[in-house]
Amino acid sequence: MLTIGQVASYAGVTVRAVRHYHQIGLLPEPERDRSGYRTYDAAALVRLIRIRTLADAGVPLARVHELLDASPEEFARAVEEIDRKLRSEMRRLRENRRRIARLAAGESLALPQSVLGYLERLRGLGVDERYIVLERDAWIMMAARLPHEIDDVMAMKHRELDDPDAVQLYKLINEAVRSPVDDARIVEIVDVMERLARRAVEAGEVVQADDDGLDQPFVDLLDALPAESPGGRRIIALLEERGWKGWTRIEQVPP
Fold first, then answer.
1. Crossing angle of the two packed helices 15-23 and 42-56, in degrees rounded to 10
2. Closest Cα partner for 245 from 228, 20, 235?
3. Among 48, 68, 206, 246, which residue's CB has the most CB atoms within a 10 Å radius?
4. pTM
5. Cα separation of 225 and 138, whole Å?
6. pLDDT tens track of the chain, all 255 residues?
7. Torsion over CA: 53, 212, 157, 95 (sign)
8. Spatial distance between the Cα atoms of 218 and 205, rounded to a whole number of angstroms
9. Which residues pair with 86 in a beta bridge?
10. 19-33 as b/e, with b when 16 or more CB fall inside 10 Å?
11. Are 42 and 224 in contact (CB under 8 A)?
12. Distance of CA 253 to the CA centre of its chain
């Protein structure tokens, strides 16, 4: 869980902006800890990034709530209306017009083209859309946190998909996503993940904590996404039984 200062930093806004979004109803009030401080989860961060992206694109805050909760058809109509208004504004708004026009694509909101290409490659492998959504939300946070490194990260992810084991992993995930938590494919998934992790360790390809540009609270937030599902929790538990911990930064625990 994140403090208001951390969630503001990760989303690229000020604490004052977060409080303002609470006041006007754009961002629901989160739970508070025993000391009375607000605590934020991944869903709050994703929504805050979306709010910031829309606002940066020139959408009035009075319209942001409508766009966040709109159907695809309503969303597209609203974007077209905003784009018509932007046409009449000064030259400095031309970049905002381009960004607004892209919003009609829906998934491109808060995601760079390199991530969209990777998600499309996963769809080409037949990956279930529910898992795509999980990956999408993680990459929304990563792209906001590491905007200048995200293209390099995605190039690495594409190289990983050239590995037959990586492709097999996604196929197993796709088959298991609708299965009960005791499905035998969960164990197969862990087998492949462990094989990939061992290979990365042996090749010296594991990124150290100080080298990836991510602090531990942010890593914990990313790791919480797969842990939201029973299957994800079982995978994490099985990996830990075999001496591995983490998800974003998978590490081998010394015996």
1. 90
2. 235
3. 48
4. 0.62
5. 8
6. 899 999 999 999 999 999 999 999 999 999 998 889 999 999 999 999 989 988 888 888 888 988 888 888 888 888 788 777 776 766 666 666 655 655 555 566 678 889 999 999 999 888 888 888 888 888 998 998 889 999 999 998 999 899 999 999 888 887 776 778 788 888 999 999 999 888 888 877 665 555 567 888 888 888 887 878 888 888 889 999 999 888 887 888 876
7. positive
8. 21
9. none
10. eebeeeebbeebeee
11. yes
12. 26
CA distance 96 to 166: 38
Residue 217's nearest CA partner among 69, 40, 18 is: 40
Map out the domains of the chain as residue ranges: 111-255
Strand pairing partners for 32? 38
Q: Is 204 strand, coil or helix?
A: coil
142, burial (CB in 10 Å: exposed 0-12, middle 13-18, buried 19+): buried
Q: Which residue type sits at 144?
A: A
Cα 112 to chain centroid distance, Å, stands at 12
Contact 234, 181 (CB under 8 A): yes
